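Problem: given the chain below (400 residues), write out its structure.
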Amino acid sequence: MSVRAIRTGCWLQLRAPRPDALRARLVLLGLFLIAAAGLTAWWYLRPQSPPETLSLSPADFDDLPGWKAENLSDALRAFRGSCRRIVALPPDKPMAYAGTAGDWRRVCDAASAASDPRSFFEKNFVPYSVDGGNGLVTGYYEPLLRGSATRHGHYQTPVYGLPDDLLTIDLGAFRPEWKGEKVGARIVGKKILPYPSRAEIDADPPKSAAVLFYGDDPISVFFLHIQGSGRVALDNGKTLRVTYAGQNGQPYTAIGRTLIHRGVPRDGMSMQVVRDWLKDHPDDAQAVMESDASFVFFQVAPVGDPALGPPGTEGVPLTPRGSIAVDSHIHPFGLPVYIAGGGLADLFIAQDTGGAIRGPARADIFYGFGPKAETTAGGMKARAAFFVLLPKGVTPKLSG
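Solution.
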């Protein structure tokens, strides 16, 4: 809204406009204030270093370490899931640097009839090396929690649905270069304020948020927030799935970093080390967990196929060891990504994203559901080379 428009609005208010006109101007003023609050929050919460740019070099499949030895069935299964979304997109819909959705329809058609995963990928794709040295690979999983619909006994830790007063402001609607950046806010009186932090929510829960269930262990609920989804075995014998519905807009802080500042050795830091420390230090556990200001709200979803995970950001159920989270500011969903290094050599499909996943050579592997998946995911941290596969005939269009 221009300065002239604001001044005109003030002048018209002195002329006592009709109630419907006044209501419309108040709505516009409210939108302006929300946008201003969002931009202010973004200014303080934005990344302090410039985002990494993507640089690719043409490669051959023979350049991919371990390519011939790997079983690519999980990747093909995951890719077929992405294709169900890709073919429904408008043909001219950009796939980031990898052409358009129309360019991918031919390979999606071929995927539906493919019987040999390796032959399918070699015949339909061209590999490119992601330049810039070794990337970082971690893992995530879908946890199992114990819960109850009512608060009693050990079931004391609430898991909340989306509160009515949470405003999620998509800054990309205001400036293209802010695409993907979102902030959380709420209206208090005549002010628009940042949404409360984890510590503030713990102390004063949002009154407009429904409790989906009560967990029997605050540490398990905290890890549910980190993973973004999970299954819950209720004390009435039923099982439900909860998935990500929204977030308070506060910055995410890895509590492993908090523990390092408290003197826990950096070497060997892992998800299990964090969990064990929290259990062994009950008096300090809440303060450490609250050092992460980010707070996630959930929604109930059907379990569906128990062999698959919850839908990722792409909207496709995640395939264990076939799906990865990537930086969606850079890579398109549905992209095949080959990762080799640190004892890992496998092909994955980009189907999810996460607040800590930033950069062109950064991935989080989805390992599936349950304790075994948790152990594997918690111990995964490796440096590796990244390769992306683009459909034949598609030339990557990179900025800069």
